[in-house]
Write the structure tokens for this entry.
Amino acid sequence: HMSVRTDRLVLVPFVVGPLSTNCYLLACPRAGSAAVIDPGIGSSEELSPILSEARRLGLKIELVLNTHGHPDHVAGDGPLKDLTGAKVLIHGQDAGLLREPPWRWLWPGLRPLEPDGLLKDGDVVRLGEIELAVIHTPGHTRGSVCFYLEREGILLSGDTLFAGSIGRTDLPESSHEDMMASLVRLMELPDEVRVYPGHGPPTTIGRERRKNPFVKMALRKARS
């Protein structure tokens, strides 16, 4: 897993929890502001490397950003909010998964939580000098989003797009049709955009356009 560290941007991946979820510490070092994307574990042992990395870099964790509401991505929302005072943001259509989390008994740290703000398509979340554009990509869940850092050429894709695969669409709040449309939309991004997904290794938009069978299927369907 590749960290990105420049004077403008820090992106450090952590693999957390029983489903090996990618959790990202994203920061604007110039402003000293950080966000945690998808803190999927609530146990303090698993959160401590993220917190100590933020401390080491002199960053204040101001935001918790959720790509969607599944427990393996949001279990740490409450604990991180307690520890840092960060504001928790999620798309409106997945807010119910935070307010009344399913599978609560399975996950340490997971508890009902009222989000501090609701995201919608086209929103821009500011983190110091970094701008994250919210792209609503339903399919895996109704309120799944990707965060696009256009200037940096980075997409945080959650469980919408993986290297060579996509998120499941056989769950209660999933839709195969929506997922196909979301993939077509992501393929409007430039080939060189680096994709940091919710599980597995990073990839690029161009690589997925050429090699991902689900993306190819979605594009074929859109053309027909």
User: Anything to note?
Assistant: DSSP finds seven helices and 15 strands in the chain. The first helix runs from residue 44 to 56. The mean pLDDT is 96. The two ends are 37 Å apart (CA to CA).
